[in-house]
Amino acid sequence: METQEKPVTYEGGCHCRAVRFRVVVDKHKADDCNCSICRKKGFLHLIVPQGQFNLLQGEDVLTTYRFNTGVAQHKFCRICGIHSFYIPRSHPDCVDVNVRCLDGDVVARFEIVPFDGANWEQNIDKLHSSYSNS
What we know:
Blueprint: E1 8-13, E2 20-25, E3 29-33, H1 36-41, E4 44-49, E5 53-57, E6 62-65, E7 73-77, E8 85-87, E9 94-98, E10 111-115, H2 120-123
């Protein structure tokens, strides 16, 4: 029998604290992608519906980087350079939060699931999302 998690609210943001957000987590699962950009950023993906994400401050210091198809909006703080969240290509109606940017030492609370993003097209149907029923 599958146990239902209670939603947990976390806050987080960038290194210099100019960008701050709040996110409601239903499932403590995050994807560790091996694609070229995620490997370099060390991003642990927590994809949530937009309604579970609230940008508290810092919209004015965010810069967006797009590449390849241009669908994903890789947002980062122009002051410290940290990528704490973005709009993913896989779920453009959601927000993808970097678990490593949540306040406190909370990564251990998450099940980290490897994702072969280096072969994105062949594996996208395996990508975990708290937005889906996976």
